[in-house]
Specification:
Length: 403
């Protein structure tokens, strides 16, 4: 983030358009992610992560996230500023950029407010426009003429009309920078005389500020772990630190799950730090099986004990179960976030049984839920792979032989 916000950031923040359902849904779906710097989360990763640079504590992030949601729903900048001040005092957050002066606090709250509302509004518009592509297959760029300090390049794009699927929109769907309030509108065909060729240099990101070369809302379905692997999220050191604080233990944030399983199997006497597989991406789907628990922002983890248990205990049996191998642990995150079925074991109030069909095989995972103040995790207990008839959840939730 630049050291100074655009001069008209506060004015623009006070003129946000009315909220709408797609915008609010985009904000609610975000997962709270601790970061040290504004660029720990890069471009399209903002579709999946709610961040406030320097905010590492889970409770602090959750409070700020809810405050931004209320602001987007219409509470306004003044109410957001009051709530921000109350949250930072209640959570003991100090030393953040801008905290030392009244002007700095006004600047920082305006930037947080304006950036989140502008991006969420754009993401909601992206979703709406995608639904209209059949009848309105062209998109037109409109410069925000009311901006006090317009960018000449954005002004030059005013009226630019391209097909909705043109790759230009993947990198230049506004906002295209701090304080940018340009917009895109759908139409059936270009207007007479409208430019219909992308501007020179667009492939190199010309016209978009650093960190803004993406389309808000276009990557909402991508798991955070994939974004880490694609280097869109570069916070492993910061997230390791917060896991140490919040969960009371060190967690590996970088090793691939297959490599982790191979390491656990190669040295079975060494207990490895738990491996972070991401966050529970669709907590509402698991709520009933979790006894009504809210699993939002629960960390999905894999332990070396779970790897060894699954490999050692689950060999071939009469029901078509095959041995579990290291490569199977690549399916654990998808098993949670794209489960075909969910169930709660009869004799356990803290476990979930999830299944997912992968080709001709069915993966079955038993997971332990921990929702304490210092431990919000969903941990794999054991894993089964069926190659024959579909898996039937045993009454005790442990499958053949029990976990």
């Amino acid at each position: 983030m630049p050291t100074l916000a655009p001069p008209d950031a506060a004015a623009a923040a006070a003129e946000q358009p009315a909220p709408f359902d797609e915008q609010l849904a985009y904000l609610r779906r975000k997962l709270n992610v601790p970061t040290e710097r504004w660029d720990d989360i890069w471009q399209s990763a903002h579709d999946r992560a709610f961040v406030v640079a320097g905010a590492l504590k889970a409770d602090l992030l959750q409070d700020l996230h809810l405050a931004v949601e209320r602001a987007a729903a219409g509470s306004g900048l003044a109410a957001f500023r009051r709530e921000f001040e109350a949250i930072t005092m209640r959570r003991g957050w100090s030393g953040w950029t801008g905290s030392s002066t009244a002007a700095g606090r006004a600047w920082r709250t305006a930037v947080i407010y304006d950036t989140n509302l502008a991006a969420s509004h754009a993401a909601g518009r992206w979703r709406q426009l995608q639904a209209l592509k059949t009848s309105l297959p062209w998109w037109r760029y409109r410069h925000a003429d009311g901006v006090i300090h317009p960018r000449p390049q954005h002004q030059a794009w005013n009226g630019l009309t391209l097909p909705a699927d043109h790759p230009f929109w993947r990198t230049h769907f506004p906002p295209n920078g701090w304080g940018c309030h340009c917009k895109v509108f759908a139409q059936a065909a270009p207007e007479p005389g409208a430019p219909t060729a992308p501007p020179a240099g667009w492939e190199q990101g010309a016209g978009a500020d650093e960190g803004w070369g993406y389309a808000p809302g276009a990557q909402v379905g991508v798991p955070l772990r994939e974004m880490v692997e694609a280097k869109l999220i570069t916070y492993p050191p910061a997230i390791r630190a917060v896991f140490k604080t919040e969960l009371g233990r060190y967690i590996d944030t970088e090793t691939h799950p297959v490599a982790y399983a191979e390491q656990a199997l190669a040295d079975r006497r060494t207990k490895l730090p738990a491996l972070w597989l991401g966050f529970v991406e669709r907590p509402q789907r698991l709520a009933a099986a979790a006894g009504g628990r809210d699993l939002a922002n629960h960390v999905l983890v894999l332990s070396s004990d779970a790897v060894l248990h699954a490999v050692n205990r689950h060999a071939d049996d009469a029901d078509g179960q095959r041995p579990v191998v290291a490569a199977d642990f690549a399916q654990v995150a998808a098993l949670v976030n794209a489960a075909d079925t969910t169930a709660a074991p009869a004799r356990s109030g803290t476990r979930l049984v999830l299944t997912r069909q992968v080709g001709a095989e069915q993966f079955e995972g038993v997971f332990e839920v921990s929702s304490g103040p210092k431990s919000r995790t969903l941990s794999l207990v054991t894993l089964y792979v069926r190659t024959g008839k579909r898996w039937r959840v045993a009454k005790d939730g442990g499958g053949a032989g029990g976990p």
